[in-house]
């Protein structure tokens, strides 16, 4: 093994996508294995890689980690994206869990039956606009800092950035009533883009699917996604 974390999942965003975002924002290069056959999956189970017979699987620091939330906590802790004390962690956990609830709706969206697509899209827009984004708009406005917790870039910022981009992809005007989020998104993109500068071809899939084709980096990806350049 190269020493880089190895991510095993299907060739899609799904539950692995926030893990990719976190690693990319931490500036950590990773390898990916895409499961294409049932035999590959069965072999992982047989060889004892999947504790609960489920992916995502992340091999990191000699561990075979499963359970998305546990994997992300480990990465956030390891790369100093998880607050300075228990109270900051608690806040980051609350923000991350809230955003995960919104992301769950986006995760399930592709499986909507055709006659429910429009209704489900409206629900995503409604929840983002009325429940989740106002929370972060208010937090940022109240403390006047560039990051959600402790005036320092954290897992919560990464998760929020991913969620905003994922919702915007479906509802392009969704940020129009959220001026703080617009500014913060840009700042965070530049910040995590700079950290992820060394990334080569391993990026979140959301980046890849929008990518313009110049040299891969998180900064290019963000410019492409956000500014359309
Ligand atoms: N709680 C787990 C859920 C993982 C999960 O449901 N994985 C799906 C793929 S996205 C899976 O492996 N399903 C096969 C199964 O449950 O048998 C996590 O967050 O990682």
Automatic annotation (TrEMBL):
Q: Any idea of its EC number?
A: 2.5.1.18
Q: Which residues form the GST C-terminal domain?
A: 85-211
Recall the GO molecular function terms of this protein's record: glutathione transferase activity
Tell me which Gene Ontology terms the entry assigns under biological process.
Answer: glutathione metabolic process
Asked if Transferase is a keyword of the record, the answer is: yes
NAD as a keyword of this entry, yes or no, is no
Tell me the first and last residues of the signal peptide: none
Known Gene3D superfamilies for this protein? 1.20.1050.10, Glutaredoxin
Q: Catalyzes what?
A: RX + glutathione = an S-substituted glutathione + a halide anion + H(+)
The UniProt keywords, alphabetically, are: Transferase
Tell me the InterPro entries matching this sequence: Glutathione-S-Trfase_C-like, Glutathione-S-Trfase_C_sf, Glutathione_S-Trfase, Glutathione_S-Trfase_N, GST_alpha, GST_C, GST_superfamily, Thioredoxin-like_sf
Q: Which residues form the GST N-terminal domain?
A: 3-83
Q: Say which family it is in.
A: Belongs to the GST superfamily. Alpha family.
Q: Which PANTHER family match?
A: GLUTATHIONE S-TRANSFERASE (PTHR11571), GLUTATHIONE TRANSFERASE (PTHR11571:SF230)
User: Protein name, please?
Assistant: Glutathione S-transferase
The organism is Malurus cyaneus samueli
* Taxon lineage: Eukaryota, Metazoa, Chordata, Craniata, Vertebrata
């Amino acid at each position: 093994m190269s020493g880089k974390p190895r991510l095993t999942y299907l060739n899609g965003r799904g539950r692995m996508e926030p893990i990719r975002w976190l690693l990319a924002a931490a500036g950590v290069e990773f390898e990916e294995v895409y499961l294409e056959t049932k035999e590959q999956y069965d072999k992982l189970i047989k060889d004892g890689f999947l504790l609960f017979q489920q992916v995502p699987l992340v091999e990191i620091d000699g561990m075979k980690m499963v359970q998305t939330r546990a994997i992300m906590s480990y990465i956030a802790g390891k790369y100093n994206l998880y607050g300075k004390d228990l109270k900051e962690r608690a806040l980051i956990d609350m923000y991350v869990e809230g955003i995960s609830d919104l992301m769950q709706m986006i995760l399930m969206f592709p499986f909507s039956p055709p006659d429910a697509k429009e209704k489900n899209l409206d629900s995503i827009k409604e929840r983002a606009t009325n429940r989740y984004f106002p929370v972060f708009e208010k937090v940022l406005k109240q403390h006047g800092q560039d990051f959600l917790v402790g005036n320092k870039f954290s897992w919560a910022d990464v998760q929020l950035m991913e969620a905003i981009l994922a919702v915007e992809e479906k509802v392009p005007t969704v940020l129009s009533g959220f001026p703080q989020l617009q500014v913060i998104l840009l700042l965070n993109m530049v910040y995590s883009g700079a950290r992820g500068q060394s990334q080569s071809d391993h990026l979140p899939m959301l980046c890849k699917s929008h990518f313009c084709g110049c040299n891969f980096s998180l900064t290019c990806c963000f410019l492409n996604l956000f500014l359309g350049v």
